[in-house]
Amino acid sequence: MDAIILQILNGLDKGSAYALIALGLTLIFGTLGVVNFAHGALFMIGAFCAVTLNKILTLSHTVIDPTKTDFLGNPAKIQVPYVYDIFGESAGASIIDWSVPLAIFFAIPVMIAIGFIMERGLIKHFYKRPHADQILVTFGLAIVLQEVIKYYYGANPIPTPAPAAFKGSFDFGAMLGFDPNVIIYPYWRLVYFCFAALIIGAVFAFLQFTTFGMVVRAGMADRETVGLLGIDIDKRFTIMFGLAAAVAGLAGVMYGPINAPNYHMGMDFLVLSFVVVVVGGMGSLPGAVAAGFLLGILESFASMREVIAFIPGINQVIIYLVAIIILLTRPRGLMGRKGVMED
Asked: Which of 8, 45, 274, 312 is spaced 20 to 30 A from 112 at the CA atom?
């Protein structure tokens, strides 16, 4: 039982990332009808927003500390971050420690701006083109963005530590009545799952309970009729592209402490996220979220030592096997709508 609970926790952790990226992908496809293969790059850029803010906050200058000496006996020179000068040493150290959560506020405007530029500058020219053209141009854009990140940040992963308050692990076993230290799980992974649930809930609440969201949902169902009512649905869809980019970026920001950001992390998640979207049903937001968590949990169980010993390599292909089975039995996916990508 303890192994099952631990794998469910692992699956929710992986599923959170899959669901967030797939949610953004589905928002873009459902509103604009664009298959955006650059969406994984937006996840990567979000992670590097956290890296960038950390580098900004740790910018420092050299001061002489008369209380310390170097190996020659001269007063030691130490590096003091500028935030210490502005906020004081204690507050400055806390700001640097909390750089990843603070990067959320840095990443939101950056990702929305990048989303607007992508949509207005490139993707809008491919709305009425075949999906194959959309895939090619957005995949090319993803490669360009990946190489830009590699040029400026290097090819090696860059650690972005979680705040000190969330380092360590939570003893789930003791809470559930098991022996201590039987089921322990990192605090930050629990934070990531809660953060993902919050973002997913906020997106659904925005679409369900705001006038803007209701118009967008109506436009997804019947774009022409909404346009005939005098509503500039194209402008609203552009805003949704920016919001989808922000969702992907925030997923990347908070994922940094789990997996150190690197230039190819977007591609690593992209293919799996598209599988999630297809399994959930093209254009279905609830399907994307449900499929993300489902496939995350299945992948986690397939990674167990006992399962790999029985079926070697199953952890590498389980998601694709499940996708094949679901699409053979339900060609539109779990919650797909009739007529989506069927022409």
From this structure: 274
- Token pair in block for residue 74: 């001269």
- Residue 240: count of CB within 10 angstroms of its CB: 25
Kindly report, residue by residue over 241-281, the tens digit of the pLDDT: 889 899 999 999 999 999 899 998 888 887 888 888 888 88
Distance CA 151, CA 75 (A): 38
Q: Give the pair of three-digit tokens for residue 285.
A: 């937001």
Residue type present at position 120: R
Listed residue (35, 241, 246, 33) closest to 136, CA to CA: 35
Predicted confidence at residue 56, as pLDDT, reads: 93
Candidates 235, 273, 223; CA nearest to 252 is 273
Query: 71 falls in which pLDDT band (50, 70, 90)?
Result: low
- In angstroms, rounded to a whole number, what is the distance separating the alpha carbons of residues 240 and 236? 6
Chain centroid offset of residue 180 CA: 33
Structural domains in the chain, CATH included, are: 2-57+100-329 (1.10.3470)
Averaging pLDDT over each range in 27-31, 67-71, 84-88, 245-249, which range is the top one?
Answer: 245-249
In the prediction, which pLDDT does 241 show? 87
Q: What is the pTM of this model?
A: 0.87
Three-state helix/strand/coil letters over 196-222 = HHHHHHHHHHHHHHCHHHHHHHHHHHC
